[in-house]
Specification:
The protein is built from 3 helices and 11 strands, in the order αβββαβββββαβββ. Strands 1, 2, 3, 4, 5, 6, 7, 8, 9, 10 and 11 form an 11-stranded antiparallel β-sheet that branches.
Length: about 160
């Protein structure tokens, strides 16, 4: 009877953890990820800086993408392209992204009109400050910090 109860409890616990994806980083590489949301989590409140649904409604283009290949990250911000090296850390899911190289194109539209307060240089800062990655329900979460040291979560799909 105790063995059956143990198996049932273990099954329930494992089912509750199913939203966490414990895959290796290889499941992140080779795929173009689109930024869905950027939020700052502080002890006082949660502030959303970017919401892709607002961008999609305006048909404003494809801004804020990310792709990891081999030892480089690349993508499109708003509107410039960027790339740079990344390194996986010793600790589980730790990552650092080194100096980014960017193009210097002028935007044909003002992306800040559509994406709330996320400016291109802020996006670059958040990418540069990434220290951890996670996969949850098939979505990539990059953990970063802003200039004030607040936790920034970048959700990609």
């Amino acid at each position: 009877m105790n063995k059956i109860l143990t198996v049932v409890v273990l099954a329930v616990v494992l089912a509750g953890c199913s939203s966490l994806d414990t895959s290796s980083f290889s499941s992140v590489t080779g795929k173009e990820w689109k930024l869905i949301e950027v939020r700052i989590d502080s002890p006082i409140r949660r502030e959303i800086l970017f919401d892709r649904s607002a961008l999609s409604k305006e048909n404003a283009g494809t801004f804020f993408t990310l792709k990891f290949d081999n030892d480089h990250v690349s993508g499109v911000a708003a509107p410039n392209r960027y790339n740079g090296p990344y390194t996986l850390g010793e600790e589980e899911k730790s990552i650092t992204i080194s100096t980014l190289r960017t193009t210097m194109m002028a935007a044909t539209i003002d992306p800040t009109k559509y994406v709330f307060r996320l400016k291109e240089h802020d996006y670059y800062q958040y990418i540069h400050n990434v220290y951890k990655w996670d996969l949850v329900n098939g979505r990539l979460i990059l953990h970063s910090r802003n200039e004030a040291g607040q936790e920034v979560h970048m959700l990609f799909s």
